[in-house]
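Aim 2 progress update. The chain analyzed this quarter is reproduced below.
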Amino acid sequence: MVDDVELNRLYWHSRRGMLELDVLLVPFVREVYPTLNAEDRDLYRKLLTCEDQDMFGWFMQRAESEDPELQRMVRMILDRVQPK
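Predicted structure tokens:
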């Protein structure tokens, strides 16, 4: 179970100041994060420690993370807005 304090903290950490990232991360943390298992929640928090420019490249599909688990989280977030 995710408590409100954790969700609020993650909401603010998900606001990156780059609109392209904000429109992906903020809805994800509000709508999907609470349903993730503990491993994927940890992975999302790890994603938030990455540099904005790196994340921008990953989400715009111009590059991929060298960490396959981070890339899996990126794909999970993209799949939410770009269903196959």
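DSSP finds five helices and no strands in the chain. The chain has a mean pLDDT of 94. These observations will guide the mutagenesis experiments scheduled for the next reporting period.
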